[in-house]
What we know:
There is one protein chain. By secondary structure, the chain is α/β, with parallel strands linked by helices. The chain is 43% helix and 14% strand. Helix 1 (20-31) links the parallel strand 1 and strand 2. It has one domain (11-196, 231-262): 3-Layer(aba) Sandwich (Rossmann fold). Helix 3 (67-81) runs parallel beside helix 4 (111-139) and helix 4 (111-139) packs parallel to helix 6 (160-183).
Amino acid sequence: MSIPFDVQGKVAVVTGGAGVLCAAMCRALAEAGAKVAVLDLRLEPAAALAAELGNGSLGVACNVLDKASVEAAAAQVLEAYGRVDILINGAGGNKPQATTNAEQSFFDLPADAVRWVFDLNLMGTILPSQVFGKIMAEQKSGIIINISSMNAFRPLTRIPAYSAAKAGVSNFTQWLAVHMAQEYSPQIRVNAIAPGFFVGDQNRRLLLKEDGSLTPRGQQIMTHTPLGRFGVPEDLLGTLIWLVSPASAFVTGIVVPVDGGFSAFSGV
Length: 268
């Protein structure tokens, strides 16, 4: 019996879709035959990626912290496709002002910076889940994938707001999985992916020196990663396709680490 990893013809909405990791997810979904709505804060990169994807893909400007903006994006998606089968809540990130360092102690972190990180990562997951989840509730089917983080499993030093916000995303994933299945339809599933350490624009200087060698922080991470490397966007795609396809039909409410073994290693 073949395992049904089929997403052909499905409609997938990806917030933060023009970012490095989410753009790779958009490409994988399009290559698998899905129609992809790329939602991003700026229209230009979203539209450019949608044009690259083809297959009737759509670029939409969307501020995930403004429910009216999310509702307007949902209206565009429904006008184009008539339904929503998959939502990937990919918008997220950290802020230097919410990070402790030699010049800024935990006690001096500005409340507005901490709040910004919580809003983007947690509210930026909840609001799209409300808007697109309501569509799925009316359809009686759908799949929501949230993006958590390794920091939700094992908080890293210096980033208290980001770690706590992503822990909230993991908890919300479990809550929403139960709520949607019990209140609306067991054909609605909610899961999350927790990437380990992937080098991106936000953390490059923390992990790598200008010559490409590891910083002390990067070396600490590598020492605690049994597979001995940082992740690349393609490492997330197999897990993604599994979670959005019928292959995971009996899977809901889980957070899958894609971390090279970091969460399994005690350091001893």
